[in-house]
Amino acid sequence: MTVEAGGPNQLIIHTNYLFAYAFQPDDPAAVADPMDVIVLVRAEVDYMVLKGPRWTEGSQGLWYGHVGGFGYSIACDWYKKGFLAPAIRDRSASHVPHPRQERAAYFDPKADLPAESGCPA
User: Fold this and answer.
1) In which domain of life is the source organism classified (predicted)?
2) pLDDT for 81-94, tens place per residue?
3) Which of 44, 77, 78, 79 has the CB geometry, 3.0–4.6 Å to 68, for a possible disulfide?
C-alpha cells in the first residue's frame, strides 16, 4: 500500500493485495498440484480521500477510484456464480487448468496484472 498527494485536498491510496485461500480436498489422492486446492485473488484498488472546501460536504470522505484484479486457480463454474472454490471442484468444460504465463507472476505484487483470470469470459 502506498500513499501520495492527488489534486488539491486529495489523498490517493494505492493498494495491491494478494489473498490466498486454501481448501481441504474431498479426495487428497485427486490433488495433482498444490494449486488444485488453492485459490488466489489479487486486487489493485486506488482509494481517494477528499476533504476541504473544494469538495461539497457529500463528496468529502473516502471513495474508490481505479479497480483491477483477477482470480487464479478458481473453479470457473463456481466463480461465475460469485463463489470461491478451488480448481479441483470445477466441472465446466471451459476450465483452464494451467496458467498461460509463468506461475510466479500471479503471486508477484510487482508484476502487471495478468490479462486473463484462468476462467474465460
Assistant:
1) Bacteria
2) 888 898 888 755 55
3) 44
